Amino acid sequence: MRPRRMRLTLPLGPLCLAALLAGATSARAQQSQRSYRIAGVVVDAGTGAPVPHAELLIPFRGEDTKAVAGDDGRFVFQGLAAAKYPLSAMAHGYVREGYQQHGAYTTGIAVGDGLDSEHLIFRLHRQAVITGSVTDEYGEPLRQAQIILLCFENGAGSPTPTDQARAMTDDLGAYRFPHLLPGKYYVAVSAHPWYAQTELNGGSAAAGSGFRPGGPNNASNLNPVFDVVYPVTFSPNATEGRTAEELILAAGETKQADIHVQAVSAVHLRLTNLPADENAPINFSASESLFGSLDEPVNIVSGQISPGEYEVAGLPPGDIVLEVTENGSQSKTSRTIKTNLRGSDSLDVTGRGATANVTGRVILQDQDESPEQGQVSLRSENNQSASTALHKDGTFSLPAVQSDSYKVFLGFPDGEEYIEKLSATGATAHGREVTIAGAGDVQLLITAREGEGELTGVAKLDGKPAPGVMVLLVPENGESLEGNSHLDQSDSDGTFSLAEIPPGKYRLMAIEDGWELERTNGSALQPYLEKGQPLEFSGNEKKNVVVEVQRLRK
Amino acid sequence: MLRSFPALATLFIFALSLSSAAAAPAKQAESDRFELHGTVINSATKEPVSRALVQLNGPGGVAQLSGRDGTFNFTNLPPGQYAMTAMKPGFFSEEELGRERGAKIAVANIPPSGDLLLRLVPEAVIYGEVKNEDGEPIEGVRVRVMRLRVIEGHKVIDPEGESLTDDEGAFRIANLQPGHYRVSFLQANRGSIRFVGSLNRAREPQQGYAPEFYPGVRNVESAATIEVKAGTQSEVTQVLKPQRLFEISGVVRGGDLASGFNLMLRDDSGEDVPEDMKIDQKRGQFQIVGIPEGTYTLLARGFARSGAAPEEKKPALGATQLIHLTSDVTGLVLSLEPTSSVEIQVRDEIPPDGSHVLHQAVVRFVSLESTQYSPAIQTPFLEGERVTTGRLDNIPPGTYRVEATPNEPGYIASLRCGRTDLLREDLTVAAGAALPPIEVTLRNDGAQLNVSVIEENHRRSASVVIYSEEIPRRSLLVRVDDTGSASEANLAPGTYSLIAVDDAEDLEFRNPLAVEKYLGDATEVTLGPGDKTSVQVKLQATGRQQP
Questions:
Q1: Per the CATH hierarchy, to which homologous superfamily does domain A128-193+230-265 belong?
Q2: Do A79 and B63 lie within an 8 Å CB cutoff?
């Protein structure tokens, strides 16, 4: 059973557990007057011993049905209509998890005639716990600080950490993350010194205030003691991911990870050569880049200090992602600047790397309506991005795009359009990606078509429906496995479903215990691809197949 | 160069207790620049508070963090008047505590007369754990602390902080001001409202935890009061027993259901009960599940069908149902009926000499059943008119305390609704009842009373209740600081009992039962129209310790 679909087509990434527990409502009810049961026993995944008093939950169609397991770990839900239900469990001292959960995927329980839903063995993993406390540069507890828990998920391919959970420190500076799966974690604190006062050096303190000709340039009477920030700090006191403490937790283990933060002088960044148009105010947002992939927002103050010159105050030193949004009268354009700050500095926005002037047009095939309210975005793996709203005639303009390779995304309020064809002049287009090198004019022609394909089917092992296996659909050409793969876990009746499949040639694989596989690594997949089932989708096509399960090769 | 020193460098002592310590005259650094030094201390332990942010706002804003020994030292200050604050997480300034002591921001004059002492009041903490009968922790219980206080002589309960229990059943709520608190426990993730196409019956009887108060009681009125003092930590352990939860379902009839209706379930102490509710708006059906045994009021609000003019505001409808819940209640029918409206007439009784126009007043309906409902209306200002009217609509059935406040100096001579004297009685509004107009009469021939408080022949600071036995709702509370006396103008003529106490913060001074025990030692004064009277009142012992 796959997690709830997202409206905007975004790269497939690992999702956190919370998203799973909230979602998973895609079960389909069948017409049946009879009522059925879901029953089984909750056991410790390590020892196999029954876990008493677990609370089991079926979140179905926005309604939660609960059951509590007995002293012997047995539970039963009665009076269920024939359908496919998500099931999750929580117990004191255990991970909160879905039935046969792997990442964001679980095995849905199919209930109906001829289906056995009464002999489930729900294996719960003993929880790992991370606790600790945060102290500031004076050794005093840091209260109401946000603690970020990062984890590295297995099998997701590239080893990038994901933002797993958040917590807030209490008045003692203490925090606690219970219900964790065994694995590798990092904890970091994001906070602002309570006594800090962030003001612009170059002008008044008013955030985002417009330019005042010859305005008061009151020499800052801000005490440098107060113009400070806390960079995001990993345990025990690292301000960079490289030197952060690795927390490797086994099932049932509790680790203490205290963090000590140190206030440092805030960086004031002066940005020059921005448009001086008073009717097109510029907004800034900044985030700190963690492990080069996760962005943690920073509280900043910004404002224009002279025509075309802005100041951003309150930045920590280090890797910063600055988003500059120009609010034009017609549309707003934003671009992302990555920089490493060592101290207060001035940054010529035009001089910094070449930017291309991208214009283009989106054509919707087979549709009379104009692409109103649409949005086009470019995103690179280096977190560069640019996006803008489409004009009524489908054209768009992104005036300053940095050199990089971008994936092109379309967003429509209610559409499921996919990009059928992308062509470019002044840049290189391949698939749904465009590589922009250097300055100049780039024109994009994006042909989009409504209707992505859907694949349903049954995974079978030795002729029998196989529950809980990984079902993977990858593009035949093996390109962009992370972004273009489609993934599900078969439910208790062996069924699976994949949606939002753009037309193209694919290979379908069902792999038992496949969750241990590094599935975005082409060479790791190679032995399975050969036995994979070739499938070709045209627009709007729906297919139903039987796929033979392959065993994991060790 | 102009130098404008006050005749004597004075330190006004207000909330922050800027008291001058040992005489250590300020050094005159340069020609007209001065130093200001002092210490921030913890008011409970008297220990210095390090790293407190001390801010001085005046001719130049400056700030610094106090040192390890709690000291601060500002140099190079131009003369003038400065507002002074100290702050630190985990502490309150006395000004923040907002006691009814005429708390104002501390003011320091430069040059100063000596060292300053800034007091910070440490927070209190309520912490503890929630367990089941087997001693196992219960995770995800929403623990709330509510503060009991008296505002304008009436008791109120305000939510002050909340926390969710963790996987070990533990919770911790900090940042509490000294005071009296009650603690409630509610199973989290309750209170969802969903709009559905059709309703189906709950499949199985539900078990769960009922909302409770410390120590294991269902009603806020019978909950224990925890008194927390500055800097203390109070531990609370609660054992929750799972119990059968019930369903209330039925249908709302009448009015224009398509344009929406809402339902509120209140417990018998007037608190809204956050329970899971499903509403089928088209059919008017509703289902509320997971409610423990108890007595509740279910209120429905809706709108009348709009006529030809859809843009016109639709009059509100309402329905109320009392429910004694001991098993599932199904098939309820709530018929929406018109809610009440009332006209407000404000007039004055001052001779038309042209010197005053007094006919503006604010009239407020304070619901005695619901802590959430207290609509108010201000009558409009009409140039030259001696009577103005206003109208308060959509008043749901219930009992109200009606309050009126004049906009200009004056007093409420009478406040009536038909035969109900609202200065003495509450107003009961029956469902759909037509109410006679509320008549407010204003006068400006009130008396002025100057009060000073003495204890052993010395004037001192105190709180003085100006209590009217005849009309307790006219009673007032004034603060007298130790520099002299307090003055209260526009008092309605009549006889008052003057009660001077150290701290009237928790005194329900408009409640005759709460005031009764002080009347024996009170000073009585009778005020006639236009009188100006000065009275000295002796301080009474309240039996309550100063914090």
A1: Carboxypeptidase-like, regulatory domain (2.60.40.1120)
A2: no
